Structures are given as structure tokens and as C-alpha cells.
Amino acid sequence: MEIVWRVMFEFFIAYFDMHDALMKLTWGFCR
Predict the structure, then answer these.
(1) For residue 1, what is the DSSP state?
(2) How far apart, in whole angstroms, are the C-alpha atoms of residue 3 and residue 9?
(3) N- to C-terminal Cα distance for the chain?
(4) Residue 1: Cβ within 10 Å count
(5) Among 13, 18, 27, 30, which has the minimal tally of Cβ within 10 Å of its Cβ?
(6) pLDDT digit string (tens) for 1-31?
(7) CA-to-CA distance for 20 and 31, rounded, in angstroms?
(8) How many angstroms separate the CA atoms of 5 and 2, rounded?
(9) CA 22/CA 31 separation, integer angstroms
(10) Of the candidates 6, 26, 30, 7, which has an alpha carbon nearest to the alpha carbon of residue 18?
């Protein structure tokens, strides 16, 4: 069960990082 948590945690961090980069890119593009 610990492996599932680890995978979910990694996925969440990767998704959050991607979302942050996407928002920064969008803001830079709009300006």
C-alpha cells in the first residue's frame, strides 16, 4: 500500500509542477 501512496505523491507533485509552469507560460504570453 505504501507504493500506491508514493506513486500518487509523485504524480501529484509532477502535476502541480506542470500546472505551475503552464500558468507562468500563460501569464508571460498574455503580457
Answers:
(1) -
(2) 10
(3) 45
(4) 5
(5) 30
(6) 799 999 999 999 999 999 999 889 888 887 6
(7) 17
(8) 5
(9) 14
(10) 26
